[in-house]
Design brief:
The complex is a heterodimer. In chain A, the strands form two sheets. Chain A has an eight-stranded mixed sheet with strand order 1-8-7-3-4-5-6-2. The two termini of chain A are 27 Å apart. In chain A, helix 10 links the parallel strand 9 (271-276) and strand 10. Chain A has helices at 38-62, 68-82, 84-97, 101-117, 122-125, 127-151, 166-170, 190-198, 234-255, 281-287, 300-303, 311-325, 360-366, 368-381, 397-416, 434-438, 440-444, 454-462, 480-496, 513-518, 531-540, 543-554, 559-573; strands spanning 2-5, 7-10, 13-21, 157-161, 177-182, 202-204, 219-222, 227-230, 271-276, 293-297, 330-333, 387-391, 427-431, 449-452, 499-502, 523-526. Chain A is globular. Chain A is an alpha/beta fold. The two termini of chain B are 22 Å apart. By secondary structure, chain B is an alpha+beta fold. The radius of gyration of chain B is 12 Å and the shape is globular. In chain B, helix 1 packs antiparallel against helix 3 (74-86). The chains are: A alpha/beta, B alpha+beta. Chain A binds chain B through residues 68, 71-73, 75-76, 79-80, 82-86, 89, 112, 115-116, 119, 121, 123-124, 127, 130, and chain B through 15-17, 19-21, 23-24, 27-28, 47, 50-53, 55-56, 58, 60, 93-95, 101.
Chain lengths: 578, 103
């Protein structure tokens, strides 16, 4: 049994077999196999070698390689792959040391590479690079299979990985995935977002997970306390099963709130919307009592499937979500690509500082055909229900005007072909940079609504990379600077009489709900599984209490003090949540 | 019945040593013979028909190698390999030598 502590990013308890996923550049961890699995691993090796050879033959014959040096490199690769003593060394390792095929490949090739690297001769030490190339060539085939496995699961698993990328999670078969545990990542990493939207537990920043994951063991992911137990003993497992049962009962109780209004004890109504990534998640929103989709993250259309979505792909996804919510609002956010979410295909530059680079609306404004395709689909879908469009990462009025101008262009195109659309479709923006928060008053004059995206707002205001575990503890919505910006945006929205919602992580953080209400927020958009719990908090508090709490917090000077105060207040009104 | 055995010592004189391409030429050539061929450098002896083992010898310029062949065509093998080394691996890239493998 091994107990690891990380950061809890999505609540719940999962007890299931582990599924290990590695990324291509990753140093393969040592993992044991049972003696009975030997032949299966050897078979995988044989296939990887055969596929790699076929691949090389294709490259060699297809390309009329002028450059001798490149041809030589491929020729050397080929000879290594056909070298029986080389292959034997790897299979011997699998047989004798009982490790996985990929570990044996990686270990042997790295041994050879370090042998070269250690020799004091420039010609020879350079060979190490060739060896790493061969390693990569084989690993692609060995690990590629794993990714396929995870797309065709037959039993419940928890995913163990270094870090999960949108491309990986898009391909997961979600029915069987019960939890995530990753070595890297922070509170708002992609892993966390996906886990919350699926309503499964996740723990991130666990450090090296590779050391002891025995074959056929069970892993417990405790997303409430941020703990992962590998291969638990009987007693621990029983305790966790008991705990998971209690949790389920609590959740069932919350579900009973589904049809009750989200209003404070003194009668102030709050709208609760759901954040989604895939259209079928709209069902989860409705099942949890959500009043619509407050944030439809459309970039997943681009990250899924490996090719650029067509206008029809967009349209049918939007139409499905709109159909499911039956007339309730659907806020479609135009694609937020770039930074950590890169499109599968299509152009994107290599950037040294991608978070400050060509991402989100900036990317759209430069990749116009891509942007227009999406806008056409949104406009066409706008006649199917209460559809609203939202532009992400707007930093100033000029950007907003540019985006709206392109929207008008697309409308004119549709007019030409007499395609119906809602000309009055509300156009809103995300407030997620200090720049837009500070000039919210200006932006409000040309927006139908604001939605505050707290994740990016915090990252850009505090200059903290939320996925960097060395500084992720500095990432806090309770910083006075963040609260001041949010307050400013709320006031400007109210002054201009436009809609305002919060769609970042804080909207689903039980500790923040009272504060947000006290600050004047009346619409929240959050991970669907969290809707009942947030509703319970709203129904347990009075607006008077919230206002009082907000006034107190405004006088405090540190995030720690604020956080503690918020936690105490939340625990007083709803102790079961904590 | 003893099989013919031949042995010779050569010095690597091309500047890049038994780098990838020369090693590949050497291995390809060795593989065209049926004899068992081994190469020794200092106290390490390896199979001349394995690219992995040959490259791991890390024979740099100036290294002295002992080539040892056992089999019917051992004499011709030694002669051909010696020529390759002494000609400093001139005469086309390894890829052009061909893919014929010993069995």
């Amino acid at each position: 049994m091994e107990i690891r502590k990380g950061i809890a990013v999505s609540p719940g308890i999962a007890i299931a077999k582990p599924m290990l996923i590695d990324s291509k550049d990753y140093r393969i961890p040592r993992r044991s196999i049972l003696p009975s699995q030997r032949s299966q691993e050897i078979q995988r090796l044989r296939k990887a070698f055969a596929t790699a050879v076929t691949e090389l033959e294709r490259v060699e014959s297809a390309q009329d390689i002028e450059e001798n040096k490149i041809r030589d490199i491929f020729a050397v690769h080929m000879r290594f792959l056909r070298d029986r003593s080389f292959r034997k060394r790897i299979t011997d390792m699998v047989n004798k040391e009982l490790v996985t095929a990929e570990y044996a490949v990686s270990a042997i090739l790295r041994e050879i590479a370090s042998h070269f690297a250690g020799i004091n001769d420039a010609y020879i030490s350079e060979r190490a690079a060739d060896i790493y190339d061969i390693e990569k060539r084989l690993l692609v085939h060995l690990l590629g299979k794993q990714q396929e496995d995870v797309e065709r699961l037959r039993e419940e698993v928890v995913i163990l990985a270094r870090n999960l990328t949108p491309t990986q999670t898009a391909g997961f078969d979600k029915t069987y995935i019960k939890g995530f545990a990753t070595e890297k990542g922070g509170r708002t990493s992609h892993t966390a977002i996906v886990a919350r939207s699926l309503g499964i537990p996740a723990v991130v920043a666990l450090g090296d997970l590779s050391s002891e994951v025995p074959p056929d063991c069970v892993v417990i992911v405790d997303g409430n306390r941020g703990v992962v137990v590998i291969d638990p003993d009987e007693e621990t497992r029983r305790q966790y099963e008991q705990y998971a049962l209690q949790m389920t009962q609590f959740v069932t109780k919350l579900r009973e709130l589904k049809d009750l209004p989200a209003q404070t004890r003194d009668g102030t109504a709050v709208q609760l919307f759901g954040n989604i990534e895939f259209p079928d998640e709209s069902e989860i929103v409705i099942a949890n009592g959500g009043e619509g989709i407050g944030l439809y993250r459309t970039e997943f259309l681009y990250l899924y499937g490996g090719q650029e979505p067509t206008e029809e792909d967009h349209y049918s996804a939007y139409a499905e979500a709109i159909r499911i919510v039956q007339g309730k609002p659907v806020v479609i956010r135009t694609m937020d690509l770039g930074a950590d979410k890169l499109p599968h295909s299509g152009w994107h530059p290599n950037e040294t500082n991608p978070v400050l680079g060509l991402r989100s609306i900036r990317y759209c404004l430069q990749a116009l055909p891509l942007f227009k395709t999406q806008l056409r689909a949104i406009l066409r879908a706008s006649v199917l229900g209460d559809v609203r469009v939202m532009f992400p990462l707007i930093t100033n009025l000029q950007e907003l005007r540019q985006a709206k101008m392109i929207l008008r262009d697309v409308m004119e195109d549709l007019d030409e072909y007499a395609v119906p659309y809602n000309a009055q479709m509300p156009v809103g923006i995300m407030i997620e940079t200090p720049s837009s928060a500070l000039t919210a008053g200006l932006l409000a004059t040309e927006s139908s609504f604001f939605s505050i995206g707290t994740n990016d707002l915090i990252q850009y205001t505090l200059a903290v990379d939320r996925a960097n575990e060395h500084v992720s503890t500095l990432f806090s919505a309770a910083e006075p600077a963040i609260l001041k910006l949010i307050r400013n945006v709320i006031q400007d929205a109210h002054k201009a009489g436009i809609g305002l919602s919060i769609c970042g992580e804080v909207a689903s953080d039980p500790e923040f709900i009272m504060l947000l209400l006290g600050m004047g927020v009346r619409t929240l958009s959050l991970a669907p599984p969290m809707i009942p719990e947030v509703k319970k908090i709203i129904r347990s508090a009075t607006l008077e209490e919230c206002n009082e709490l907000s006034r107190k917090v405004a006088t405090m000077d540190s995030s720690r003090q604020i956080r503690n105060y918020l936690r105490d207040a939340a625990m007083r009104i709803l102790p079961e949540s904590f | 019945m003893t099989r013919p055995t031949h042995e010779i010592e050569v010095e690597i004189r091309n500047p890049e040593g038994l780098h990838m391409r020369p090693a590949m030429q050497f291995v390809d050539l060795a593989n065209t013979f049926n004899s068992d061929i081994s190469v020794s450098h200092r106290d390490v002896t390896v199979d001349a028909k394995s690219i992995m083992q040959m490259t791991m010898l890390a024979a740099t310029c100036g290294s002295r190698l002992r080539i040892h062949a056992v089999g019917a065509d051992a004499g011709r093998a030694i002669e051909a390999l010696q020529q390759l080394v002494e000609n400093k691996f001139a005469g086309g890239s390894g890829a052009a030598v061909g893919e014929k493998k010993g069995s």
